[in-house]
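Standup notes, structure subgroup. Blocker cleared on the zinc ion input:
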Amino acid sequence: MIELVFLGTSASAPSVQRGLSSHVVAYRDARFLIDCGEGTQRQILRSGLGFRRLNRILITHGHLDHILGLAGLLSTFMRWEAIDRLEIWAGAWALERIHDLLYGVVLRGARPPLELQLRAIEAGDLLEDDGFRVSAFPVTHRGPGCFGFAFEEPSRRPFLAERAEALGVPPGPLRRDLVAGQAVTLPSGRQVGPEEVLGPLRRGPRLIHVGDCARTDDLVDACRGADSLVIEATYLDVEADLAHEFGHLTARQAARLALDAGVGHLYLTHISRRYNDREVLQEAQEVFPHVSVARDFDRIEVRRQDEPPSKSS
Ligand SMILES: [Zn+2]
Ligand SMILES: [Zn+2]
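Run returned:
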């Protein structure tokens, strides 16, 4: 199951309650850090996630509130051997700034003590591992090369427990073999094939993450049918002119996108200190009811929207 942990949910500057942008997406053994604002290391520690396997970082864009934590993180990894490779993925402009920060300030001519890969993102698939796919799509914000990310679990055929029951397949290893696509022989001697107990192929749960963002009309296709959508909501409608001026969304605009794209649940992040959570939630709820305002250390599990809702908050 895809899980996401909000490490930092504040816009532009940290507040007492909220750290700067950073999220961890995990699926089985794979982990991705999305953005790395100042203070991310401490948030990682406080979340209990730890640094192990945290060697892939996806950057939404190159603004300082999303990248300054990379310097501290690399500095820690330089003294600590558990990470031997660090991949940082970002658009070309952000990557240039990250290069300056890491090679100009942190390393200053020293060789990185780990394999440091700065990788330019282009729209499309970033990686595919055993059916689990991570892809990037362009996002409009201030400056070029801003990206959103899609995470999708492998498609699978659901196990039809009632069918198995009716055929007399006992719970346990025989059912596991059938799910794995193998025919089995029941204690009675009867043969059962996987096609008898597996439903039609269905796409896996899908999570969309969008960082800072100025408009939503160019995101509807990328977000269509997503089970969970994480996106910024820096302003409220009363300050829509400021949102427009600085290339951000209002809570209402984010909710409108969720409605238009038919997403399952909307999580708002990149929250400004000028508002309280209740106001942000209320404005979004008027447009789209399935919405939460994320707080630091909230965890979500991404389930298909036609399955029972997530237990965690
Ligand atoms: Zn930002
Ligand atoms: Zn920004």
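Discussed briefly. The mean pLDDT is 94.
Next: hand off to the docking folks.
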